[in-house]
């Protein structure tokens, strides 16, 4: 069985301040605002639609949005 390496966008919730800049930077509209606890945070709705344009990563002031390697079988 071979494993394929895939890149995808991930949000580190321990770093996310809820500023929502990534929501407006996303050209595909796959990041949305959600309410978690006392502040608004963001989540990725459908990673498969992401074109890896890096707009959300470059816009995030806290470094919470990043591209990671995932291995799928």
Task: Provide a quick synopsis of the model.
The chain is mostly beta strands and 73 residues long.
The profile of the biggest β sheet is: 2 strands, antiparallel
Q: Give me the Rg, rounded.
A: 13 Å
Please give the CATH class. Answer: Alpha Beta
Strand order of the largest sheet: 1-4
**Which architecture per CATH?**
2-Layer Sandwich
Describe the 3D structure.
The structure is a single chain. By secondary structure, the chain is mainly beta. The chain has one domain (4-72): Alpha-Beta Plaits (2-Layer Sandwich), CATH 3.30.70.20. Helices cover 14% and strands 38% of the residues. It has two helices and four strands, in the order βαββαβ. A two-stranded antiparallel ribbon has the order 1-4. The N and C termini lie close together (7 Å). The model has no long low-confidence stretch (mean pLDDT 85).
